[in-house]
Amino acid sequence: MTRAVYISGGTGYVGASLLSKLLARAHKVRALARPGSERKLPAGCEIVTADALSAGTFSATIAPSSTFVHMVGTPHPAPWKGAQFRAVDLVALQAPVAAACTAGVQHFVYVSAAHPAPLMKSYIAVRMKCEEEIARAGLLATIVRPGMSWAQGIGGRSR
Fold first, then answer.
1. 63, 103 in Cβ contact below 8 A?
2. Euclidean distance between the first and final Cα of the chain, in Å?
3. What Å distances lie between residue 141 and 19, 41, 109, 112, 118, CA to CA?
4. Residues 2-29: b if buried by 16+ CB within 10 A, e if exposed
5. From the CB of residue 34, how many other CB atoms can be counted at a distance below 10 Å?
6. 27-21-28 Cα angle (round to 5)
7. What DSSP designation does 76 have?
8. pLDDT tens digits, residue range 72-107?
C-alpha cells in the first residue's frame, strides 16, 4: 500500500536512511529541508524548503500526508546542550503536532530517546515533554525510543 509520508528531519543521519527506504517502497514522500540543505535529500521526494522552528511551516505543507515522521532535533545530543534541546527539539515538535491534528494525519511517528539516560537529564526531560504534547493532542502515534549508544554509534559522540 502506497502512503503519503511527510518527514521533518529528513536531512539528518537517521532521516536520510529512512527516506531512501520509503522511496524504494514507492511511497510518496515529502521532506522538510532547511534552505541550503535541499541537496541532501534523495531524488524522488518532494522537497519542502522551510524553517522547522516556524509555526507556519507545517500548516500549509502537511496535507495530504497520512503519516508524519518527526525527527528534527539538536544534532549530536550532549549533556551540556540543555538550552538547545528546549529551543530546538521542543519548539520544532509543537507546530507539526498542531498541524497534523488539523490536517487529519492518521499516524504520527516521533523519534524520542530511551529512558533513563542518567547523563542526559535535560535531553530526556525535553523528549518526555514532546511525548506528552503528542499524547495531549490525541494523535495516533508511535514513539520510537532508540538508546543513546545507538544514536552515538551512527553519528553522535560519546563522553
1. yes
2. 43
3. 19, 25, 6, 12, 26
4. eebbbbbbbbbebbbebbeebbeeebbb
5. 14
6. 15
7. S
8. 999 888 999 999 999 999 999 999 999 999 999 999
Question: Is the pTM value of this prediction over 0.70?
Answer: yes
SS3 155: coil
* 127 to 4, 56, 94, 100, 123: CA distances (angstroms): 26, 22, 12, 18, 6
CB count in 10 Å sphere of residue 156 = 16
Mean pLDDT, consecutive 10-residue segments, the chain of 159 residues?
92 89 96 94 94 88 93 90 95 94 95 83 94 96 80 41
Buried b vs exposed e over 105-144: b needs ≥16 C-beta within 10 Å? Answer: bebbbbbbbbeebeebebbbebbeebbebbeeeebebeee
Q: Is the peptide bond before 118 cis (omega within 30 degrees of 0)?
A: no
The CA distance from 17 to 13, in Å, is: 7
Output the pLDDT for position 156: 43
Sheet of strand 141-144: strand arrangement: 46-49, 28-33, 4-8, 67-70, 107-111, 141-144
Q: Which pLDDT score, from 0 to 100, does residue 31 have?
A: 96
Q: Which amino acid is it at 148?
A: M
